[in-house]
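Design a sequence for this backbone.
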């Protein structure tokens, strides 16, 4: 079992950048699909981006394409979400999750292991 632990959230101005980190606790992320999700107040949790640890295949939600980049560092056993050109609508609690599925997944139900979340607030 792997336990994702997020960090890097904070307050930024619109147009700014922020990088979130998701480190593995308990074991490595190798063999997992890692996904980033976010949930704003009053809204459902939504998919942001995902990456297959071994193949580096990635998938992005349309709302963040061209602005966000998901990547991983095997030496640090960490997955990152680089967020550029941030908008107020990006404000949410961001969660990192791990899936044992062989393919990229955008459905939250496909992920068995979840972090506690990190708050990202984008001011106008």
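Sequence:
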């Amino acid at each position: 079992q792997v336990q994702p632990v997020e960090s890097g959230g904070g307050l930024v101005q619109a147009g700014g950048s922020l990088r979130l980190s998701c480190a593995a606790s308990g074991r490595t992320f190798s063999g997992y699909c890692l996904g980033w999700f976010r949930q704003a107040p009053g809204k459902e949790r939504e998919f942001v981006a995902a990456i297959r640890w071994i193949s580096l295949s990635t998938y992005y939600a349309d709302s963040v394409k061209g602005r966000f980049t998901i990547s991983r560092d095997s030496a640090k056993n960490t997955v990152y979400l680089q967020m550029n050109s941030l908008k107020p609508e990006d404000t949410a609690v961001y969660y990192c999750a791990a899936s044992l599925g062989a393919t990229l997944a955008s459905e939250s139900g496909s992920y068995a292991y979840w972090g506690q979340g990190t708050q990202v607030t984008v001011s106008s």
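The mean pLDDT is 95.
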